[in-house]
Amino acid sequence: MFKPFASSVGKRIRSNQTRLLVAASTAILAAIAFTLASVAANDAILPRSNPAQASRSASTPAQANKTYTLYTGFWRTDGSFVSTIRVKNVLAVAPIDVTPVLFMADGAPYMLSSVHVAVSGVATVNINDALATAPSSIASHISQFGSAALIYSYPSPGHVTAQMAAIDASRSLSYTYPFVEPMNMPGHDSKQVLEGLWWKHDPGVTGFITLSNTTGQQQTAVLTPVLPGNNANSQQVTLAPQSTQMLKLEDIANQASTPDNRAGGIRVEYQGSQGAILVTGALANESEGYSANMPFWFQDMNSSSPTQVTYASAGLMLGKPDPMMMPGFPKETAFSVYLSLRNTTEKPLDVALQLNYMSGTGMQGSAPVARNLPMQHLAPLEARQVDLQGPLNAVGLKNFSGSINLSTSFTGKAGDLVLATGSVDQTETYVFEVEPQGIGTSRSKFANYWGVANGNDTMFSLWNPTDTPQDIVATFYYGNGSGKYTVPVHLDAQASTMIDMAMLIAEIKPDADGNVIPPSIQEGSAQFASAKGRHEQITLVIAAGIYNVTTATCGGGCITCCGYSSFQISPSPILCPIGDSMSCSALATDCNGYSSNLGATWSSSNTSVMTVSSSGQVTGVSVGSATITATYLGTTVYTGQMCGGNGLSRP
């Protein structure tokens, strides 16, 4: 899921439209007058009726590099687990050097050698190998689990994404967690509340929760099991600087040990900065090879009014494996869809479910179909597993084999509902998790990693949830930065499709520029944008899964919005003698490193001193000072979190 430290990837959907004051410049009128210009922007996860359009590219004044740090809450090397960091350079204009740091369970740091990541490239870091060659100063601190950080320098943030993949192939266990970048936002020093959801697909499922302190100071977290009418005692956990603790779910929530309880909640609270404590969780039945991430979503603590919130999960498999997928599944393999919900509020919550799928036996020539499923009425604080098979049979999908899309809607605030979706086969060995995403407009989205090496394959599911056709260009970047491959995708209203990377490579079909993905390219990243241009808005739900049929492991991909950062007004300072006029630009840097002149609404706090036109042209009127404000509307703002629901802690 998001998904994190800012507006609560969510990503989950923001229920209020906020303004972010992020830049200022000084304008001098005559000899002594000056004005302060500030910039505002709206979070762009919510649909907008008036999205801004970037008018032209522009160069920004040279800026000094700043250091940014991303964190993930958990890696493990116990048993046969191999943990790998997958790093993506989002910049399309420059390579970047990234320094990984591993934190042992006791908080001891182990800085690794910097990794050079090519333009639009990816790189991987094997934690098991790094620990095997650790210096003697680290030897006494080495643990079987811990947290990690990535450090990079650039003038603006948002240009590196990463995820941690912990895979035990021998036992078919797989977990993936995104890296997140803490950013101080409104309310960052207040109380933080994360709501978690656990469920038991069968009585043999157990779970664990990890708490990681990302700061250099001691932190304290309070964990409380939550069930309707439950007054269970809370548990306080003290975390040393940079340390990680791993707790058994059954030790926190006794109800998780009771066969009759198939779902429940865990609330984690702490006082301090957003992202000071990262919370991750996992569920497993190791005897069967069943594994799933346990979502923890931040509760929206603001006082805004409730609004309609919709999450969507694309590419849920139902019935026989999709023909587009890598062959090799056992003949009898059949998938069912799972859905778990948790109402985190003390009021009843009604959740509407809608099903969407493509009719016919294949994607070509098939048509989208939408069906409403029975409303789910959740009691206060209730968590439940939803039996979808009966409702799916009732709408004619009893013998259906293919992919479906599922949306969940409710009226409330982000964090009022926590959910988990995915597909699991009848043996519970093949588990394909699908991260719910908030539906909303944004610029391009990107997946930080795809891979086809060592029997792996990657599948992307794309769903257009709108009532208007969309033309998308999918760009697949090679991991070594040597090239890219583009695929045009036309999606009718409510239509969906899938792209299989192994099949795409095997086709050896030139793209519009004559490019063919070389067989030697076995990893990379992907970006999805409007065919009309990278500044255009899209509304697209994307799911990614990296899976291996032989080892029965599957991990979700990390889907992120391409946001803007480093907002500023140019030129700075503004030199405007009385009676003269000059043009100002509202500039920002996008995730790819391009600087753009964004459409903005301009205003002056003192028009008797300085006026500003709707296009940003300022005119000096008299000696004095004024505040010139450029307000961005409908702009995706980088907030250090994922765009989808990404099931990690998301401040």
Structural notes for this entry:
The chain has 651 residues and is mainly beta. Among the domains are: 24-62 and 564-632, no CATH class; 66-178, TM1070-like (Hypothetical Protein Tm1070, Chain: A), CATH 2.60.290.11; 445-561, TM1070-like (Hypothetical Protein Tm1070, Chain: A, Sandwich). The strands form eleven sheets. A five-stranded mixed sheet has the order 41-1-2-48-45, with no helix packed on it. Strands 4, 6, 7, 8 and 10 form a five-stranded antiparallel sheet that branches. It is globular, with a radius of gyration of 25 Å. Mean pLDDT is 84; it is low at 1-61 and 642-651.
What labels would you give this structure?
disordered N terminus, Hypothetical Protein Tm1070, Chain: A, 651 residues, disordered C terminus, 48 strands, 5-stranded mixed beta sheet, mainly beta, 5-stranded antiparallel beta sheet
